[in-house]
Amino acid sequence: MRTRSTELRLAAHVDRLGEEHPPIELDSVDWTVHDPAALSARFGHVLDYMARVELEVDRNVLELVAMLPDPPEVDRRFYADVWQPQEIQHGLILDELQIRLGRPPATPDLDTVSAKLRVLGVLGHLDRVQDVTRMLYYLTGMATERSAVLAYNLLHDGVVEMGETAVAETVVAPIRRQEPGHYAFYKMSAIGLAEQLAPWQRWLVRRLRQLSFAPVGANDATQRADFGDVMETLGITDDLEDFTETIARVERELLWAQADGMRVPPYVLAAFRDAAALAAERRTA
Ligand SMILES: [Fe+2]
Ligand SMILES: [Fe+2]
Question: Any idea what DSSP says for residue 262?
């Protein structure tokens, strides 16, 4: 269980996010686009990927409930009152933008909870296994939210460079502002829980991370290639080590402190390289 001080800090953080970051209204967006064809050609597939992942928050909540049948109250408040309401608006806004550019809407998977997660849920009724599952959830959340911040930064710069200031200022910037608070929640939670794990639990977390790590939203080969294309467009592919080091730094410190000289957990780098390779292969096919 968490220490009391971690618990209080998390509760204060969730309160603050709820007060300072209401969900973004569709009405607040200025949909002016000077050159829809050019924006669509360059970033259409990026908007689609991000819209899908953000909209899949509804499935993520189902997964969470299956996986963590008995979450701490502050976790439940975070995902029900802050995270889901914010992410769903991100998805709706990005999807609306791509539709206005003349693209088809995103096709999120809203209800497939994998058997793997259901098994974790059943095991999760054992308290000490539930801590392992929670740690996996926080680590996934950290990597996801950190990826989102970096990706929105790059998208923002690209959209500004194209002179599409309304999109930069009323779509990308407001969304981007909400992601660091999500990251901070997972980071605080992961650090707090890591201190409480027994060596066997930490070992199991490492093993399961090695077996199951995937870039955000990349659940099959097509989606992995799609993610590779997003990285290519945003200019991440050439800097994979730096990018993955940034998203997995805290994970490395929490799980792999004993591995001297490790810059990036190898499974993280391998998964991103695989996505880049699948995309390159598909482009030349
Ligand atoms: Fe988001
Ligand atoms: Fe987020």
Answer: -
Nearest-angstrom CA–CA distance, 147 and 153: 10
Gap between the Cα atoms of 214 and 267, Å rounded: 9
180 inside domain: yes
Task: Give the environment of ion ligand 1: residues with CB less than 5 A.
Answer: 54, 87, 90
pLDDT digits (tens, 9 = 90+) for 231-275: 999 999 999 999 999 999 999 999 999 888 999 999 999 999 999
Residue among 195, 164, 150 nearest 43 (CA): 164
CATH code, 194: 1.20.1260
CA angle 76-81-85, nearest 5°? 125
Q: Residue 161: give the domain boundaries.
A: 13-213
Please give the distance, rounded to the nearest whole angstrom, from the Cα atom of residue 57 to the centre of ligand 1: 9
Q: What is the model's pTM?
A: 0.95
Give the Å distance between the CA of 182 and the centre of ligand 1. 9
For the chain, the straight-line distance linking the first and the last C-alpha, in angstroms and rounded, comes to 51
